[in-house]
């Protein structure tokens, strides 16, 4: 099995080419060929396919794709290549589980299967920005009070440090990164869950130096937390990402490879995006020595994960991965609509049904307002997500497909102009950290509608 | 081959993203003494329009745009010397420098905008990712650009869009270029706050915005 040092060596010795040539002559034709050879086809009437043969073809196509295309190193302009044997060996040796958290909050993050009756692992909170430390702490603390919450994505606290704007790669980013980790660990202590794993370290850190600097145990990070290392879209890495891998391997900390293929970007339509998303599970194992994976295939134009074609990508690639690649995956969905809107809940229900019945190992509670609006999240979305995860475990893929089709009718046409919704302070009693009456009323109404639709809530 | 057939072949080569066919057909056009300006404007540019329209309708994606752009460039390698020899110039909607700003390594959104602009007749200089303010301004000066497009996909890289505008002001160059901004967290309000000339929610909006901004230019 290849070592990470082999990967580093290949980054220095692989075929030399410009990034443009990689995209035009290697990536795009390589992906088109495998999509055609393995007959990967998108069916808009089946956003949640129940076809094991399709899932296995997506997997085989992804192995072939990664072996053909490799991964481009932007710092050396060289192609890091893997043979099909190396990829299959990495899959065969994948541990199938990841050990996270400490003390009472320690847990094993395991893989699931399509139509699994065990609920997906609930991953709570969001890496999005809050405008004050108090609000971030209140929301994180509330989100982890659910016993179902087994892991957390910690929030970014705000965009400034003592009034000074945080900019990527600057020393202020280091201050902000350290602050985010410290504030989150304090919030977890306050909620009585100090050992809960923080699986998105380090949020808002654009540079490797901030990620590594803010990860010092003196600030609250532990090797049983998880570090997200992004694959650059598509099939690219840089030395920043590889430096993080080197550091975490030396520490023995959990490495999370992050893949976010853009439907409409280099991977083209839904079939290509499903293949690339699955290939990233493999790249995480063979090229980044990942212990877990985090992914969010996303629509290039709408910036969300709830479109019909992206739901198909989520379902098809989740099935391909869970049937063939034993690495636990966190599925993250960005919703077009925001907090305190019915549309958010329709989108979140569709996303969670598609992911959970397709074998998603863990789901992050869907992120409101595309994750770009400040203060746009509340504990109510977590409550809903946990209820949906349990409901989805009582359904299979065919049943989920029927429900998702109905849900799509309820929101699909509004995606381009989705309501951006409220901020936390608009719909919550911030002092008491309780939802406002209007939001509670809307929540009950939506749950009633979804129950009538056939979603089996407890 | 008749003139109209050659023009149709050039258009088809672009639509199919077939660089070899575009180059070969351009050679045929030169041999058959087709007006090179017509070959560009009635053949290649028409193909780019088709691909651009398909993209806007959701029937084509970034790979189709990139391959069409590559085919266009291949054909232009043959046609450009002819244009120069005959002292003819193709019409350009404007020259735009596109860049992801300092600290931002994301490129897909910027690349989509670049390719869609090319299908609408803009000349695009892609400065790549992680560009400092002076680097971007230098690119704009070298390209004699009309406009600068700044992409930021993270809240922590948005301030770097402001840095570019501030640097243009400090250098006394702000009036030389229209500046538009875009990217996931970027909003109209942010564009106004930092003094940009406009904000594009997506590639199609960016094209319309630039067309209208450049029309206003004296």
General description of the model:
The complex is a heterodimer of chains A (458) and B (218). By secondary structure, chain A is α/β, with parallel strands linked by helices. Chain A has a domain at 97-228 and 241-262 and 288-299 and 327-453: TIM Barrel (Alpha-Beta Barrel). In chain A, 45% of the residues lie in helices and 12% in strands. Chain A contains 15 helices and 18 strands. In chain A, α5 (133-143) crosses α6 (171-190), α10 runs parallel beside α11 (342-357) and α11 packs parallel to α12 (379-392). Chain B is α/β, with parallel strands linked by helices and 218 residues long. Chain B has two domains: 3-85, Methyltransferase, Methionine Synthase (B12-binding Domains), Chain A, domain 1 (Orthogonal Bundle); 94-216, Cobalamin-binding domain (Rossmann fold), CATH 3.40.50.280. Chain B has a five-stranded parallel sheet with strand order 2-1-3-4-5, with helices on both faces. In chain B, α8 links the parallel β4 and β5. In chain B, α1 packs antiparallel against α4. Chain B is elongated and about 55 Å long. The mean pLDDT of chain B is 93. The chains are: A alpha/beta (458), B alpha/beta (218). Chain A binds chain B through residues 23-24, 28, 31-32, 74, 129, 156, 159, 165-170, 173, 176, 204, 206-207, 232-233, 238, 240, 262-266, 268-269, 300-301, 303, 370, 372, and chain B through 58, 61-64, 66-67, 70, 102-109, 112, 154-157, 159-160, 184-185, 202.
Topology:
The complex is a heterodimer of chains A (458) and B (218).
Chain A: H1 4-13, H2 19-37, H3 52-69, E1 71-73, E2 78-80, H4 84-92, E3 97-100, E4 107-110, E5 121-124, H5 133-143, E6 149-152, E7 160-161, E8 164-165, H6 171-190, H7 208-213, E9 226-230, E10 236-237, H8 239-251, E11 254-259, E12 262-263, H9 270-288, E13 292-295, E14 298-299, H10 308-324, E15 329-331, H11 342-357, E16 362-364, H12 379-392, H13 397-411, H14 424-427, E17 428-429, E18 434-435, H15 437-453
Parallel strand pairs in A: 1-10, 5-6, 5-16, 9-11, 11-13, 12-14, 13-15, 15-16
Antiparallel strand pairs in A: 1-2, 3-4, 7-8, 17-18
Helix pairs in contact in A: 2-3, 3-9, 3-10, 4-9, 5-6, 9-10, 10-11, 11-12, 11-13
Chain B: H1 3-15, H2 19-31, H3 36-57, H4 62-85, E1 94-100, H5 108-119, E2 122-126, H6 133-143, E3 147-151, H7 158-170, E4 178-182, H8 188-194, E5 198-199, H9 203-216
Parallel strand pairs in B: 1-2, 1-3, 3-4, 4-5
């Amino acid at each position: 099995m290849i070592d990470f040092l082999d990967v580093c060596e290949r980054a220095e010795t692989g075929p030399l080419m410009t990034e443009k040539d990689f995209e035009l002559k290697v990536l795009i034709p390589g992906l088109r060929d495998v999509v055609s050879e393995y007959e990967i086809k998108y069916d808009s009437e089946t956003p949640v396919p129940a076809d094991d043969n399709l899932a296995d073809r997506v997997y085989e196509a992804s192995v072939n794709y990664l072996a053909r295309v490799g991964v481009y190193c932007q710092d050396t302009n060289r192609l890091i290549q893997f043979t099909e044997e190396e990829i299959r060996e990495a899959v065969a040796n994948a541990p199938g589980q990841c050990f996270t958290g400490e003390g009472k909050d320690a847990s094993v993050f395991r893989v699931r299967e399509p139509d699994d009756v065990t609920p997906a692992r609930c991953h709570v909170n969001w890496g999005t920005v809050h405008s004050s430390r108090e609000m971030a702490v209140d929301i994180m603390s509330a989100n982890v009070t659910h016993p179902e919450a087994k892991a957390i994505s910690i929030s970014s606290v705000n965009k400034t440090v003592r009034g000074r704007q945080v900019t990527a790669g600057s020393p202020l980013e280091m201050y902000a990164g350290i602050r985010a980790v410290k504030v989150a660990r304090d919030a977890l202590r306050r909620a009585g869950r100090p050992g809960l794993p923080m699986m998105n370290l380090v949020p808002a850190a654009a540079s490797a130096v901030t990620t590594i600097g803010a990860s010092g145990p003196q600030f609250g990070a532990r090797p049983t937390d998880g570090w997200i290392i992004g694959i650059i879209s598509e099939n690219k890495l840089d030395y920043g990402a590889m430096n993080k891998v080197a550091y975490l391997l030396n520490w023995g900390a959990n490495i999370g490879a992050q893949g976010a293929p853009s439907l409409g970007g280099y991977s083209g339509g839904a079939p290509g995006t499903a293949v690339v998303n699955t290939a990233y599970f493999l790249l995480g194992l063979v090229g980044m020595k990942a212990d877990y994976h985090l992914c969010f295939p996303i629509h290039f134009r709408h910036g969300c994960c709830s479109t019909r074609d992206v739901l198909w990508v989520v379902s098809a690639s989740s099935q391909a991965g869970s049937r063939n690649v034993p690495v636990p995956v966190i599925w993250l969905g960005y919703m077009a609509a925001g907090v305190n809107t019915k549309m958010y809940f329709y989108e979140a229900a569709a996303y969670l049904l598609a992911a959970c019945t397709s074998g998603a190992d863990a789901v992050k509670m869907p992120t409101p307002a595309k994750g770009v609006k400040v203060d746009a999240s509340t504990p109510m979305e977590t409550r809903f997500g946990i209820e949906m995860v349990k409901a989805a475990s009582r359904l299979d893929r065919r049943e989920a497909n029927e429900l998702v089709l109905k849900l799509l009718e309820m929101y699909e046409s509004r995606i381009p102009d989705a309501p951006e919704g409220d901020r936390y302070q608009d719909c919550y009693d911030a002092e008491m950290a309780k939802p406002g009456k209007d939001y509670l009323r809307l929540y009950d109404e939506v749950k009633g509608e979804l129950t009538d639709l056939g979603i089996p809530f407890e | 081959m008749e003139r109209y057939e050659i023009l149709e072949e050039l258009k088809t080569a672009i639509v199919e993203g077939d660089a070899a066919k575009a180059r070969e057909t351009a050679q045929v056009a030169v041999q058959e003494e087709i007006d090179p300006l017509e070959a560009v404007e009635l053949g290649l540019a028409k193909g780019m329009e088709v691909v651009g329209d398909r993209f806007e309708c959701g029937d084509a994606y970034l790979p189709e745009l990139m391959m069409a752009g590559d085919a266009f460039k291949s054909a232009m390698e043959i046609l450009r010397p002819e244009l120069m020899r005959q002292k003819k110039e193709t019409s350009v909607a404007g020259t735009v420098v596109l860049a992801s700003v300092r600290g931002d390594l994301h490129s897909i959104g910027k690349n989509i905008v670049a390719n869609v602009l090319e299908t609408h007749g803009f000349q695009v200089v892609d400065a790549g990712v992680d560009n400092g303010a002076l680097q971007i301004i230098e690119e704009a000066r070298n390209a004699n650009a009309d406009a600068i497009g700044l992409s930021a996909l993270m809240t922590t890289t948005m301030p770097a869009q402001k840095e570019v505008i501030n640097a243009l002001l400090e250098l006394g160059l702000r009036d030389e270029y229209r500046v538009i901004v875009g990217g996931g967290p970027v909003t109209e309000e942010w564009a106004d706050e930092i003094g940009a000339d406009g904000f594009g929610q997506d590639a199609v909006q960016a094209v319309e915005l630039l067309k209208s901004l450049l029309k206003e230019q004296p």
